[in-house]
Amino acid sequence: MERVLTDVKMLWSNLYRDVRTLYIALAPPRESYFTYRLLATLSKYRDDLKDLDDLRSALLLKVRVKRGVKSSELAHSLIPISLNLVSRAVSRKPSYSVAVLAVKGFRNARLVAAAVVFSKSGSWVRGGVRPLVISLNPDVPPKVVKALAGRVSSRLWREVRDRVSTSGIRYVGVINALRLYPPIGVVALNTRAVGVEEIKAVVSDGSEYREVKVPVKVPTWGLDDLPPKIVEDVRVAIIDPIVRGLPFAAKGAFITGPPGVGKTVMAEALASALGLKVVELRPQTYRSMWYGATEKMLNAIFHQIIRRRRELALIIDDAEFISSRKYTIHEAHISEISTVLYHLQRPDRPFTILTANNPDLIDPAILRPGRIDVTIVIGYPDRGMRRKAVLRHLRMYSVNVSSGLVDRIVEVTKWYSLAEVDALIRLAAGKGGGSIGPQELEWARRRFNISISERASMQDYLRWWISKVQGVVIPYIPREGEI
Description:
40% helix; Helicase, Ruva Protein, domain 3; single chain; alpha/beta; 3 domains; 8-stranded mixed β-sheet; Rossmann fold
């Protein structure tokens, strides 16, 4: 069923007579106590919302709401917020406008209402609009909210413009002329518990009592974020057999490659494709100075993870600490490695993913089939993958680029890791105040020191390592001509 506007009107305040607000709602607005409590809460952060010309400013405010909030109440909340808090900011910086967007969810945000606040004087012609998103129960973790804020705001702004264009109200030309700037902030309203999901392991032995909490999170990456050349192999070797419940499906994967090429991204993408949440095992979580305590806590953590194996994937990031036992001289470390090996061989263990920069340090017993069934080797990205990453980051950060500059960014990032591509875009965008031109790109490129010979040697090393490793291997190591 198509959603239609239930309210469209112009608002203004006697306090700020030079400011106008175009208000639209897709739910009948209803005044309530929640409306003014939200205004009072946001008023405490008015200093964070007044610097409209600081395009790097982005407020992320998490608000706990004790009762359920109806769409009608959320829609009405924009009226006092826009007439008071936002109108005050726009009256002081008339060359900027603010679009307050009330939505449900976040990744697939559903618009409830919008209030576009702009200067009556026409100063908006010289500037643009900065979104402020008020999200009811966002369906992603806080750090993902910040990462997706630009992309979500852009999509919502397009919907607002489309709906205003067909409403027949005045100032349609103003809305269509406004250029979109990075969001000024996101307000996350949570009617559910805000606490982080976690598993809890307890060791109690006589007078000793120790409790460890390990966070559980929802993956933030998917298969679309992986190099297209290996997605099909990953589906056939790992994902499809597990999803179909086949008895011979892989139990684990090992991902290796240089720093910054996307090993953690691939680990989360695998978990996401399998419909699993992820839990990360880190040595600092369970290690103890007392003899035997490390193994006890490690066993307790594995026991809790195994109990939830149908909903969790275990990620052991930077797994070099599970080093080969021939390099290990301390008996406590040998015992720790043996404990990990034992649990990775259990038939009831969860799907396990290991990542490492230096595969030679990993104990070979870990990588044998039956414990880790598939090895994925990732090198520096080729042109196609860099283009994909560049376009994703430009959308994510709402960065404006000159015509044809994407090709130039792809070219100058030859032999860059994906993390360095991200860093280059952020650096150039910072120099250009939210936009990237040829000068900003060249300025940022000179700040990077990339040794092509060293990185080519790393690619050659990975090819050599593949030639001697045993088992199933899925490689993504582009040749120099592809890079």
